[in-house]
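Homework-ish question, so no full write-ups if that breaks the rules, but can someone show me the predicted structure for this set?
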Amino acid sequence: MARQVSQQEIDTFVRRRGLFTRRQVLGGAAVVGAMALGGALDRLVLAQQVSEDTTRVQGGPASDVSKGRSQFEQPKRTVTTAYAGIPQISGTDQSQLVGVITPSDLHFERHHAGIPDIDPRRYKLLVHGLVERPMVFTLDDLKHFPQESFPHFVECSGDSSGHYRGLLETATIVDTNPLYSNSEWVGVPLEILFREVGAKKEARWFLAESYDGAAMTRSVPMSKGYDDGMLTYGQNGEAVRPEQGYPVRLLLPGWEGNINVKWLRRIEVSDRPFMTREETSKYTDPLPREGKARQFTFEWDAKSVITQPSGGMTVRGKGFVEVRGLAWSGRGKIARVEVSTDGGKTWGLASLAEPVLSKTSTRFRYPWFWEGQEAIILSRCTDETGYIQPTRNQLLLVRGESNYHYNGIQAWKIQPSGTVVQTYHEPPLQAALPTHLAGLWPLTPDCGLV
Amino acid sequence: MKGVEALLALALAGIALLATACRGPAGLPSPTQSNLLLAPQAQPTPVGPSATGPGYRGAYGLGRDATPEEIATWDIDVMPDGTGLPPGSGTPAQGATIFAAKCASCHGDKGQGGLPATSEVLVDTRPWFERGNPRPVGPRTIGNYWPFATTVFDYVRRAMPFDKPGSLTNDEVYAVVAWLLNQNKIIGEKDVMNAQTLAKVQMPVRDLFVPDPRPWPEYQ
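A: Not a homework solution, just the prediction itself:
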């Protein structure tokens, strides 16, 4: 691919650099200069269009605001669900993304009353209830506190819920994992805020309430606030996006999406939960077999998915295929991701991209040589607590048909044509290894399984 | 000197690689990772007036005291014991009129749901489950899935009607909640709902919820 550079090419390059510098010195107002440089400006304009040989034209100008992605890259969210005619859900397409950070404009959305438009100068956060000093903070106040930043995933409680009932073969990753995204978040540790207002000893829960049209509320254990909860105003290097809660979003690392209340306006400290609609009627797991329902299911159990190759893609042909995907856990770091390319008969360890951090996306990669046969590919992760990602049947057996918190192993089938489809396939369970002990598997020094 | 530095850097990188490439059997984080980031926040040293005395406004002196009025305006939540219920009252009969005018367009004239798509079913008294059946057999509604009547009040007052949230008066909310409870066969046709009576309503599935057993493994 590399080739020798000719002297002529070097000369042209140097000449162009000179031209560019001269133009910068002349500046936009120098009409005479601009006329003298007419030819060069023509070339500048030309560069806006696609050129056969970009080394022979001046490229586009620098600018104060980016014109956005390459015209050839147009990743999009997929709007999936409207409530009473108003779209409230759009999903991230992980098959279009690389690395671990979800670009902010592609972070999934799930709203309960649309996106409020909030003037940061009028923003205020009220903190009251079981506190020594009920207080009001402006956005500036919050930004003045000691700051903390960390990458964390946010995953809607209903992500992958289609698998409880079953998805079609044609399902892509937008159907299987639409409501998962990962951002760097910047803000104030909740612990600091609790100390500032003097949260009382008997405080056990707090209510988080939104500025949105649903004034959406959730109860959160104080312990989570003290542990690693944050009030965030930054996301991926800039202000939190309007869809993600501008100007302030509650962030509870590793916990189901809905409880990370967006557009936060009020915190009320209490000695018990408030039993809001979103923690009773919704976001609870029905256990139909017993006629019960499970409440306050906060943490996401460890989960992984192969993003490439995945449903709807076509594998290039026989030969090298790098199997890539994401793994995460609401309880800490990902310890291990195993990949199988034969429906779970054998597994190999995928490499994990460093740094592997707590409650955030971990990118895994696994080299594979596809010989053109039909193949079922799977990924299965284990987190640092030793928890192993379950199969779909293991989940269905306990939870029946829920709507929430699905984290089963995802299978993709590669057909001999190379087309990839969604499939249900139960890999053989890890023989005689109780789930909670599986973290203690013997590993050989080179990381291969014994 | 440069060369030595480069060699040293290489050696260090090699050690780091060795340490991280292979995670321990129990998946223990390797020491090279940024555990520092996870360290608890350092305690700030209180400044300004004494940490308990009057005028003390936290260690950083940011923010201001909330006024009782601004707390009263925003503090609209209602708890299961009735704390937070406002003055006012309403009956199922009054609620029927309000529901027909302000809710039925989305939730159906009897609260049976359906129109337009994804608006919820509000009335159904049959169980949503069948013991032993892993699949729910019917919709989950106020009648068969909501453990507290106070939550209906709280939610309708803050979030409904969907296209005009927060537009109902307290009397209207009491009335429409009374109608919903009556349609779900939880209160009588003549029962008046107010701060005292609503808090006393016993929902049929008061004990529906069990706590989350995780992180204990659910499955073997």
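Now go work out the reasoning yourself. Hint: Residues 1-50 of chain B have pLDDT under 50 and may be disordered.
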